[in-house]
Amino acid sequence: ISLLGKEYGKADARWLYFDPTIVSLEILTVVLDGSLALVLIYAIVKEKYYRHFIQITLCLCELYGGWMTFFPDWLMGSPNLNTDSWLYFGVYLVFFNSVWVLIPGLLLWQSWVELKKMFYKGTSSGKKFQ
After folding, report:
1. Model-level pTM?
2. What would the mean pLDDT of 11-34 be, rounded to a whole number?
């Protein structure tokens, strides 16, 4: 795993040293997002009513983490990002990190559709949705 970190560090130098923003975001990701992921798995398997709340929360945490990882560096002119190399910029930074935007985006859409169905099912049966 450390070799992967060193290789990715060629695209984003902040992974090669103790960058406080990256480290704090990763600690938050491991603790909060990891816990939410376990709760979400349980909620999906057991078909719990709170599944979509947890799914939306986890997706927003992932999107926020991605934003806070890259946007401050972009505002400073990307001093830590290797934007000169097609491999490091296009593949490592854009392609691999887009997975962390695409998957939460699709899961947010899934939750939106399911919550909309539940709302219309609840309102069409004459019950108030609470």
Report:
1. 0.87
2. 94
